[in-house]
Amino acid sequence: MGNKIALVNGQIYNGDDSFIGQALLINGEVIQGIFPKHAIPADYRQIDVQQGVICPGLIDLQIYGTGEDLFSAELTSESLLSIDQQLLKQGCTSYLLTLATNTLAVFKEAIAVYRTSGSPMALGLHLEGPFLNVLKRGAHPAELIVEANVTDINDLLAEAGDAVKMMTVAPELLSDACLTLLLEKGVLLSAGHSAATFDEAIRGFDQGIKATTHLWNAMSGLHHREVGLPGAAFAHMDVMASVIVDGIHVDFEAVRLSKQLLGRRLFLITDAVGACEKGIYQHIKQKDHFTLPNGTLSGSALTMLQAIRNCVEKVHIPMDEAIRMATQYPAELIGRSDIGNLNVGSLANILVFNADYEVQSVYLEGELVD
User: Fold this and answer.
1) Tens digit of pLDDT for each residue in 97-152?
2) Are 163 and 115 in contact (CB under 8 A)?
3) Is it true that 4-55+341-368 and 58-333 share their CATH fold?
4) Are the beta carbons of 209 and 164 closer than 8 angstroms?
5) How many CB atoms are closer than 10 A to CB 223?
6) Which of 18, 95, 100, 123 is the most exposed place for a label (fewest CB within 10 A)?
7) Is pLDDT at 250 greater than 60 in this prediction?
8) Which architecture characterizes domain 4-55+341-368 according to CATH?
9) Residue 45 labelled as part of a binding site
10) Quick check: 222 pLDDT over 80?
């Protein structure tokens, strides 16, 4: 039998439910259930979380690195596993390792490294590019942005297996043949770095694009005569949208309005990078965000737990909903029912944090992280 643990004396958040005076039971690597304290079996070791918040481990579907690690600059298993360990300390237990626009050769090398890394946390790769619109490139090098074609897609994904889980594309520049091919290969498509009109975006959504990448950033604007990609995301009820809630990439008031319009279709990402002084993406730390050497905003210094705190304290989103935005909703988007919740049989990926949003403890598949 595996390790049997009962987390007690905390407030448990699981999906639409919250519990006080209950215990979360872990049996080995999975959740055993939520029980009254008096019903805890005698063979479970009780751990007092001292009135902390108990919730599923956080899920980040767009992160490039953290601290001093930027995966695309190293392309090694050591770099990937270092990112794992740093994210665990932040309360993030699952993520899509993201690479910005680069050469196909670099993408293929990243795929090969990921497939041999053995990471217990990385769920796959999110390729943000290279099939973007240069007019909305942001920090992406214009010379590396290319028009999608069937030959390149087949070459890129020939030996990828299921490593590439998500790709950000500009829907207005993606042919029907390319969009269909990517979907047939099991890639979740998200619209971003795009100058799409409302009609172009809606057409892409109707054809199977399921999300919008970092809402408001690097996309067509919301104008009263042409509501563009943001307006299409608001209007299309089958589409979700990620947002960076650091108060820099998106004003908190814009997040509040987005939440009113999108409801449970809005989820959190960090878009975080690591400090880097080499290669094509040289990220310079500017206190609470990163820029390229020329001053272009290039990534956040946000953690998922900080994003939850900003949602609660700056946007006035209730705690339970802010937690769902960082757990349940991203898990639903990628089709994972075994993470992002504390249901019986789900993986025991758990975060405990205190009233000051400080990480108290993290469990990865039932094991306490040191």
Assistant:
1) 999 999 999 999 999 999 999 999 999 999 999 999 999 998 899 999 999 999 99
2) yes
3) no
4) no
5) 11
6) 18
7) yes
8) Roll (2.30)
9) no
10) yes
Task: Kindly name the residue from 60, 69, 246, 271 that is annotated as catalytic.
Answer: 271
Strands (E), 201-340: 211-212, 240-244, 266-269, 284-285, 289-291, 297-300
What architecture does CATH give domain 58-333?
Alpha-Beta Barrel (3.20)
297 annotated to bind ligand: yes
Please, which pLDDT band fits residue 274 given cuts at 50, 70 and 90? confident
β-strand 284-285 against 289-291: which pairing, if any? antiparallel
Q: Is 271 in the active site?
A: yes
Residue 299 known to bind ligand = yes
Q: Give the DSSP letter of residue 272.
A: B
d(Cα 288, Cα 274) in Å, to the nearest integer? 12
Q: Tell whether 249 is in a known binding site.
A: yes
- The answer on whether 170 is annotated among ligand-binding residues is no
Tokens of 182: 């990517």
Nearest to 211 by CA among 227, 195, 187, 178: 187
Mean pLDDT of 149-169: 97
Domain residue ranges of the chain, discontinuous segments joined by +: 4-55+341-368, 58-333
Q: Give the global pTM.
A: 0.97
β-pair partners for 286? none
Distance between CA atoms of residues 178 and 142, nearest Å: 21
Q: What is the CA radius of gyration of the chain?
A: 20
Q: How many helices (H) and strands (E) does the chain have?
A: 11, 23
What letter does residue 355 receive in the DSSP assignment?
A: T
